[in-house]
Amino acid sequence: MTYNLSDSLQAAREELHSHAALQGGAFRRSDLPGWGMDDATLRALIRRRLAVRLRHGIFTDVSVLDAARADETRMHLLDLSAAVLSLDYPAYAFGQSAAVLRGLPLPHRVPANLSLIRPLRSDLRALRRPSTHQLTLPNLIVTTHSLDPATTGVAEGIPVVGRHLAAISTAAQLSLDWAVGVLDSVLWDEPDAVESLRETLEDWPLLRGSGTVRRALDLARPGAQTILESLSRIRLCRAGLPEPQLQVPLYDEDGLIGIVDMWWEALGVVGEADGAVKYDDRQVLYKEKVREDRIRAKGLRCVRWGWEDMNLRIDRVADQIWRAARMSA
Q1: Is 13 in the same domain as 113?
Q2: Structural domain harbouring 48
Q3: Among 86, 188, 187, 189, which Cα is nearest to 136's?
Q4: How far, in Å, CA of 304 to CA of 275, rounded?
Q5: Is 214 domain-assigned?
């Protein structure tokens, strides 16, 4: 059903939308007076099905909800916004929810649960209030811990812990391989951050999964540019290969050949964790062929693999690298 909105109501809707966008897409009924609006405006939008209740006292514009329903990540973030606004005290995205906001890699598109952290002495009563609306919060994990607000921030309009704590708390919830990948992803941009990550972990001695994080910190390395590269390094080493050098520039008499993902110098093998070349682009294919010809001219061999190889055929990839090493000897 559609309605012809008055200019004033349409203007109010647009203003409400813009305010809500600054806090993740949701808004509280109690926000309205501070935005120069009254409850009658909200009631009018609800009657016209243009505003939708998410939680007790928490609403969003129907266009925001429709967009979120079409994208799992957006829905997770809208749920987060509603959860944070439901609390009477500050709360911040934490764990895998923080990873989504901080751009950290995850083994799945979005987490199954919402994760929040509340500083000590916060109150969860608002989260326990039931909602009769069809959109309800999925499983929610709330951690209580001392938290310095100076280490937090805002992303997508949602309060969130800092990137280091996001990485540590996410790694604690994952397998060792993925924990390494998450910590590696911090080192992509901050190659000297290992000690800072260790210090962050020390501030959380009772964090469930902290043992996994400690092992992952010992294995984390700067240099990998993608999560596939991180997982490849860990799994190939586990398969018996020596640890490779990462992101190594190779040169010949004509100059830079390129920067390779991995280089086993003692084996004479280059590894590329990038999957298949885009064969539909003949120019890309030609350049890649020239690049590999120059690598082989140096007496090196190149082995490529992608996600499926790393997930299902890791031993086969390791065998290919060993065979390439014998050919380059």
Answers
A1: yes
A2: 7-161
A3: 86
A4: 6
A5: no
Strand partners, 143: 117
- Burial of residue 200, with CB atoms counted within 10 A of its CB: 0-12 exposed, 13-18 middle, 19 or more buried: buried
Nearest to 324 by CA among 227, 253, 244, 229: 244
The CATH code of the domain that includes 300 is 3.40.960.10
Longest Cα–Cα distance in the chain: 80
Give the domain-ending residue among 135, 161, 187. 161
Domain boundary at 105, 137, 161, which? Answer: 161
Q: Are 238 and 157 part of one and the same domain?
A: no
* C-alpha distances out from residue 73 to 96, 100, 266, 282, Å: 12, 8, 43, 35
Query: Does an H or E element contain 73, and which?
Result: helix 72-86
In a domain, 292, yes or no: yes
Paired strand residues for 258: 250
Same domain, 42 and 146: yes
Task: Give the integer Cα–Cα distance in Å for 110 and 116.
Answer: 15
Structural contact between residues 105 and 113, judged by C-beta atoms closer than 8 angstroms: no
- 255 within some domain: yes
Please count the other Cβ atoms lying within 10 Å of the Cβ belonging to residue 75: 17
Predicted pLDDT of residue 133: 37
Q: Express each pLDDT in 249-293 by its tens digit.
A: 999 999 999 999 999 999 999 999 985 555 566 777 788 888 888
pTM of the model: 0.86
Residue 185 lies inside a defined structural domain of this protein: no
What is the C-alpha to C-alpha distance for residues 228 and 305, in angstroms, rounded to an integer?
10
Residue pair 16/44 in contact (Cβ under 8 Å)? The answer is: no
CB 117 within 8 A of CB 123: no
Domain count, the chain: 2
State both tokens at 195: 């000690």
Please give the share of the chain, as a percent, with pLDDT higher than 90: 74
47-81 pLDDT tens trace? 999 999 998 899 999 999 999 999 999 999 999 99
Which contiguous run of DSSP H or E holds residue 144? strand 140-144
Residues found in the chain? 329
Do 141 and 255 share a domain, yes or no?
no
Question: Both tokens of residue 133?
Answer: 């609306």
